Amino acid sequence: MPVTDFLERNAQMYPHEVALVELNPEQKDTRRKSWKESELIEPTRFEPYRREITWSVFNEKANRFANMLISRGVKKGDKVAILMYNSLEWLPIYFGVLKSGAIAVPFNFRYDADEILYCVTLAEVDILVFGPEFIGRIETHADKISKNTLLIYEGDGCPSFAESYRELVANCSSSRPDVTITDDDFGAIYFSSGTTGFPKAILHKHQSLTQAAEMEQKHHSTSREDTFLCIPPLYHTGAKFHWMGSLVAGSKAILLKGTSPDTILSAISNERCTIVWLLVPWAQDILDALDRGDLKKDNYVLSQWRLMHIGAQPVPPSLIKRWKEYFPNHDYDTNYGLSESTGPGCVHLGVENIHKVGAIGVPGYRWQCKIVDEEKNVVKQGEVGELAVKGPGVMTCYYNDEKATSEVLDSEGWLYTGDMARQDEEGFYYLVDRKKDVIVSGGENIYPVQIEDFLRKCDKIKDAAVIGLPDRRLGEITAAIIEIKDGMTCTKEEIEEFCTDLPRYKRPKTIIFETIPRNATGKIEKPKLRKKYGADNLVAKENEVE
Questions:
Q1: What is the dihedral of CA 189, 193, 198, 204, to 10 degrees?
Q2: d(CA 66, CA 54)
Q3: pLDDT single digits (tens) 217-270
Q4: What is the pLDDT of residues 453-488, one digit of tens each?
Q5: In sequence order, what are the residues at sequence separation of 6 or more whose Cβ sits closer than 8 angstroms to the Cβ of residue 36?
Q6: How many CA atoms lie within 13 A of 503 on its CB side?
Q7: What pLDDT is recorded for position 33?
Q8: How distant, in Å, are the alpha carbons of 37, 261, 323, 408 from that of 329?
Q9: Which of 235, 304, 237, 315 is nearest to 276 (CA)?
């Protein structure tokens, strides 16, 4: 059954119960800019501190948008893109697209004007819905985009090159549209993270969306009594499909704006959140604030918080060890996945396996996994190879890119992830590194994630990234970019001394003190680091920092 049926069910069974809460504790001034970007219109309102909608209202909003799309000629196979920050409007618009039979195409809100145009063109987008924060970027290519794409604006002060979402849906029916959706219909296009260049468009059927939703509810035993805290952007498969566990369970979720430690803990306390998905940097910030005494656990109501889980990137075992010291009663879980597998969960640790921290887990609900060599032969247990996954959440293809599809998806449905992994004797999988990130130095394969995990055990290190730099003699050498904890000092010599416990060939040959760039889902943006710290740029950053 399509995920839209879960929304219909919740609206019928729990019509007056709260489905979504939008929370903005920082009370940011939301003075809007006009479409001429340089003109600032005086504020007419402030962002509400807290807004909420019931399941009934959620469903009605989705139906109104779906019926509006249909009235404008939208049909199955058409593409409707969403470029908005998290808000109470985001998910009803997304579900409205699905209910109309069209394909939902969420856009990364960090895209610049050229990337927006690129993705609109690549995915052949028919309609683009965007929010006020993106007026300037849309305006840059509005003439090109609007030739084949209807622009719909959600917000105050609609620019002249778009139509108003609020006006369009105002008089539309709130009844369920007369469209039959099956698991075999195309449901969504998600874009790869873009950390290796311009993103690819990943096409999924409705079957993938339902699989991800049901799997999330099963993996974390989400019940009607749970409240899920959602902080990452909804355009990302991780945030959306972790939330869909709440959709399947019919329980409440909080959309939080803000990532400071106090903001997160206050939201958990005030909204009585029970399940929280954190990215590694946010978890580290919370622990650092507790270590410094900036936050006191006793100032918050946290006893109801039962599960903390992390995904989107490798999780340092040292972080979880620290976490359990502060929160000994928490269940912990991690999920591995990629947009090509409908986000997180194709490999899943499981709350019962916290003794295997460091592993990404075992095959998730309805998934299969294997590790293969360059010829796609299964390697011996314990050996490193490429992780491949197979299940009902695998993408159909890279849209309009047969060559790229054939490189990662075989005729039997196996998806080759590009991630290097190994399996231990108990069947647990461990992520070693990205295939493209492996450093070959003097004939030795060096896996940056292993060195990064080691470096993060240092009390002074907040974050670390390891990349390969060109070397005439060895081919590549390892460079460690290190971010020091606030208020601490560290020298190159201290890091070198700390690394003496590593095998000599794994020790970083270059040490750079710098902030680690991460994308919206917490992944280290290594292409940026490689570009910034090329062979000609290794200069003054290697000295002592204050």
A1: -20
A2: 18
A3: 999 999 999 999 999 899 988 899 999 999 999 999 999 998 899 999 999 999
A4: 889 889 899 999 998 888 766 778 899 999 999 888
A5: none
A6: 7
A7: 40
A8: 50, 19, 10, 41
A9: 304
CA 143, CA 151: separation in Å to the nearest integer? 11
Give the pLDDT confidence score for residue 506 in this predicted structure. 85
Q: How many CB atoms lie within 10 A of CB 48?
A: 13
Taking only the tens place, the pLDDT of each residue in 508-523 is 999 999 998 887 666 7
Contact 535, 470 (CB under 8 A): yes
> Can you read off the two tokens belonging to residue 447?
């896996």
Q: Are 532 and 525 in contact (CB under 8 A)?
A: no
Mean pLDDT of 159-173: 96
Over range 421-435, report the average pLDDT.
87
Phi-psi bin for 233: left (phi > 0), alpha (psi -120 to 50), beta?
beta
Superfamily designation of domain 4-205: ANL, N-terminal domain (3.40.50.12780)
Tens-digit pLDDT profile for residues 352-363: 998 898 899 999
The full set of domain ranges for the chain reads: 4-205, 438-542
Q: Indicate the helix (H) or strand (E) that contains 127.
A: strand 127-130
Q: What are the φ and ψ backbone dihedral angles of 259, each rounded to 5 degrees? A: -130, 10
Question: Distances from the Cα of 440 to the Cαs of 374, 437, 450, in angstroms?
Answer: 16, 9, 14
Amino acid at 132: P
Q: Model confidence at 540, in pLDDT bands (50, 70, 90)?
A: very low
Number of CB atoms found within 10 A of residue 105's CB: 30
pLDDT by residue (tens digit) across 2-59? 999 999 999 999 999 999 999 988 655 444 443 343 444 444 444 447 899 999 999 9
Q: Tokens 């908005």 — which residue?
A: 84
**Class of the CATH-defined domain 438-542:** alpha beta
**Residues near 508 by Cβ (< 8 Å), separated by ≥ 6?**
451, 466, 478, 479, 480, 495, 499
> Given the DSSP bridges, would you call strands 439-441 and 252-256 parallel, antiparallel or unpaired?
unpaired
Spatial distance between the Cα atoms of 489 and 512, rounded to a whole number of angstroms: 14
**Residues 340, 264, 342: CA angle, nearest 5 degrees:** 10
